[in-house]
């Protein structure tokens, strides 16, 4: 079961993760948040994409 979160200390609010994976991330004020700590089945690849594309590496994943 893959787990994901957003490190609010690092997030710069660029919204890229929300554009890449709108089912997984949302904006809360000026920071992104993971909609769920547990990544739904079938969304793992898109979650990895979002994590890799985050410009400040603020999306740690636990596999
Ligand atoms: S891609 Fe990274 S910096 Fe940009 S909103 Fe998402 S978590 Fe924040």
> What small molecules does the structure contain?
iron/sulfur cluster
Query: What is the helix/strand order?
Result: EHEEHE
What gross morphology would you assign? globular
Proper CATH architecture:
2-Layer Sandwich
User: What is the topology, as strand order, of the major beta sheet?
Assistant: 1-4
Count of discrete domains: 1
Radius of gyration: 10 Å
Number of continuous helical runs: 2
Protein topology:
Layout: E1 3-4, H1 16-20, E2 25-28, E3 31-34, H2 44-53, E4 61-62
Antiparallel strand pairs: 1-4, 2-3
Bound molecules: iron/sulfur cluster.
Description:
The protein is α+β, with helices and mostly antiparallel strands and 63 residues long. The chain has helices spanning 16-20, 44-53; strands at 3-4, 25-28, 31-34, 61-62. It has one domain: Alpha-Beta Plaits (2-Layer Sandwich), CATH 3.30.70. It has a two-stranded antiparallel ribbon. A two-stranded antiparallel sheet has the order 2-3. It is globular and about 30 Å long. The N and C termini lie close together (6 Å). The relative contact order is 0.34. Iron/sulfur cluster is lined by residues 6, 11-17, 32, 54-56, 58-59.
Can you summarize this structure?
The chain contains 2 helices and 4 strands, in the order βαββαβ. The protein has helices at 16-20, 44-53; strands spanning 3-4, 25-28, 31-34, 61-62. Strand 2 (25-28) and strand 3 form a beta hairpin.
Keywords:
63 residues; globular; Alpha-Beta Plaits; 4 strands; two-stranded antiparallel sheet; two-stranded antiparallel ribbon
């Amino acid at each position: 079961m893959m787990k994901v979160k957003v490190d609010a200390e690092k997030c710069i609010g660029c919204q890229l993760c929300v554009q890449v994976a709108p089912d997984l991330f949302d904006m809360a004020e000026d920071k992104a948040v993971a909609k769920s700590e547990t990544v739904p089945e079938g969304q793992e690849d898109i979650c990895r994409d979002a994590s890799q594309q985050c410009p400040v590496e603020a999306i740690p994943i636990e596999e």
